[in-house]
Amino acid sequence: MRVLGVDPGLTRCGVGVVEGVAGRPLTMLGVGVVRTPADADLGHRLVAIEQGIEQWLDEHRPEFLAVERVFSQHNVRTVMGTAQASAVAMLCAARRGIPVALHTPSEVKAAVTGSGRADKAQVGAMVTRLLRLDAPPKPADAADALALAICHIWRAPAQNRLQQAVALQAAKTTASKGRPA
To answer: What is the average pLDDT across 5-16?
Structure first.
């Protein structure tokens, strides 16, 4: 499974590609940051993020996109920028028919470090260890993007089984309602 992780942001949008399957060693195929100038017009910043994401999709051809789910912060302006960058990434994937998964920050931290309250340094250290890198990716947005991809690779099989079980149960319930008593 090849996953492009996206840690959305208007100034720095972290991107990282990881390949592998749960239970086996994972491989980092690329990591970086799509940057936009803070003083640029919002529309131009979103176009720059789109172009950057498109380049990553062209180069790495991921099967899935894992994006950090926007969570409530005290700074509404930061939340809006994060949500806008997240939407651009999802739009790029949708155009290509690439499935998108959203993961919360605490879900990613728990998957990678074992604690949903881990700090950025702990996430960076575990990403470095899990991907057998020489040093943590910089900036932290890049390490977070890799953590998102790792989280998705590890959690996707369980999520797929859960979705299949729910669909099967729904089908059974629908079928039993159609039977005479």
So the answer is: 97
Radius of gyration of the chain (CA): 18
Q: Which of 68, 60, 58, 61 is nearest to 90 (CA)?
A: 68
SS3 string, 140-152, reads: HHHHHHHHHHHHH
For residue 8, which amino acid is it? P
pLDDT tens, residue by residue, 116-139 = 999 999 999 999 999 999 999 999
Q: What are the residue numbers of the active site?
A: 7, 68, 141
Contacts of 141 (CB under 8 A, 6+ apart): 7, 9, 12, 13, 14, 33
pTM score: 0.88
Tell the residue number behind the tokens 């380049």, with chain if given.
55
3-class secondary-structure state, position 173: helix
User: Three-state SS for 126?
Assistant: helix
